[in-house]
Every structure is written in structure tokens, then in C-alpha cells.
Amino acid sequence: VPSHGDAQLGTLTEWVQRETFPGLRRELPRLYGGLYVAELAATLTEEYDPHPALFAALTRSLAELAGEAEPLRVLAIYQAELLNAIGYWPNFESCVDCGRVRPSGAAAYFSSTAGGLLCRDCEAHHVEKRRLPGGLLDTTPATGNAQAWFELQHYHLTHVAGRAFKTAGRLFQSLGRGSDGRDRNRC
Q1: What's the rounded Cα separation, in Å, for the pair 20 and 11?
Q2: Domain 24-89+142-175, CATH 2.40.160 — does that match?
Q3: Model pTM?
């Protein structure tokens, strides 16, 4: 039933919470991870835009974070599912400039603005880029280095959204990472 001031809002008369994910409150990285995935979904999807697979991925991620799963692995997998669902999964198969196929195991560059992989011959022409560790793209967020995949996808999601995520800072702090998501102890 629309309220008087806004035709899009209604009066909530009944509500039943199905799952509370109590394990999220057990450790700060789990809590902030849950807030992070919720903010990603709220920021990068439109209201009333149906994404049943993404909703299922969100609830599964919250349940896994509330359980015993490694938080960075859960977050990296959810980031990948979100990027696929909204159509922003980057091209990691070949250079987005020249089309050269990526050699297996090779280090490469990634440009969010360009939409994917840059070979070493084309990367010099791009200001916005990030070096990727060799072998990362031979894996997936579910099987590879969770930290590297998380950092890469967070970098890309920040560019896609056009702003930093509010919950990211606390998440990174709880994980012992800097403001960009990178491990503070790593060179």
C-alpha cells in the first residue's frame, strides 16, 4: 500500500526473519565481510532488478561467513559472482587492446577502465593498470590465491562503482590490510 508522500514506499505490516546468520557476530572479519557483500549488492544492482542467482549467492556467502569458511575465499567468490551477474566480469583470456592470447603462467597487467587484461606490449599505453602475479589467471577465485583474487576484484569493483565502499575500510582493518585491501605485511 503506497504511503501518502512516496508512491514507491509501502507500509510494512508483517515480517518474518528466516535466517539471522549468528556466526557473523563471532569475529570482526566475518561481520565486516557480511556488511561488505551486502554493500556490494546494494551499490551495484538496481532496486527491483531481479537477480535470483545473485541473491542466492549473497545468502550463501552470508551463511558461509557465519560458518567456518575462510572469509577472504568467500568474499572473492562472491565478488566474481557479482561481477558476472551485473555484466562486468573482465576479459582475462586475451589482451583487450591487441587481442594477443595470454600465455599460461605469465604475469600480466589488468586495467579496469579498459575492461581486462593488458599484455606487456600494450600496458605502457594505459595509465590505470595493476600488475597481476604470474599464474593468478590460471586459477579462479574458488581455487587460486584468495587474497590476490580479492584484491584484484575489489580494485575492479571500486572502479565499476566509481567510489570506495564504506564498509571496506573496516573490513580491511579487521583483516590486517591497508586501505586498498593489500596485505600490510607484503611488499
Answers
A1: 23
A2: no
A3: 0.85
